[in-house]
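A brief tutorial aside. Many learners find it easier to grasp structure tokens once they have seen a single protein encoded end to end. The record that follows does exactly this for Cell division ATP-binding protein FtsE. Read the sequence first, then the structure, and try to relate runs of similar tokens to stretches of the chain.
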Amino acid sequence: MIQMTNVYKEYSNGIVAANGIDVQIQQGEFIYVVGPSGAGKSTFIKLMYREEKPTSGDVIINGINTAKLKSHRVPYLRRNMGVVFQDFKLLPSLTVYENVAFALEVTEEPTVMMKKRVMDVLDLVGLKHKARMLPDELSGGEQQRVSIARSIVNTPKLVIADEPTGNLDPETSWEIMKIFEEINTRGTTVIMATHNRDIVNTIRHRVIAIENGKIVRDEQRGDYGYEL
């Protein structure tokens, strides 16, 4: 599903955030991306959803080489993926329902089908009863659930999460992980950058560790491997 070949990314300030990355990721995998702060984790996942372009090398997502993709084609690439951020990135003036439905509007989904799909994913994340509320009426954990619902409402093949539990308390973090596990069991590939040692060591999946822009460890059912 994802293939990076000899990928380099150097920013204008001279920082090399990807330094010869080679990796393959199959459909349906659940992968943790770990490593010290500033190691290149965020760049690694931003290359996947074309927030960043490599300086050199190939990043192929579902057969599309994003390194060569024209900017106006990027929205079409992202229709098959969902992205979840640490700071939620919800639209404050829209209700929970409207925030999730917003991701479907560009697909010209029929209204009846759109409403059913939105309510189904809100039910999955346990927020069907709060569909009419605004983001600032929700807790941080609830806002993150809305963010997840928005990322999966178009049934993507791939969900990319950048520190999705970073701003949440431990109990809420486990609840969020249950949702990611459910998404994954339904066949969606999940790639999650995280500093949460307990989650990585308890819910075992493939672990890709990055240091200084390089993959230094790639293990099936790996552990976190870093001291806090």
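Self-check: The mean pLDDT is 91. If you spotted this yourself, you are ready for the next section.
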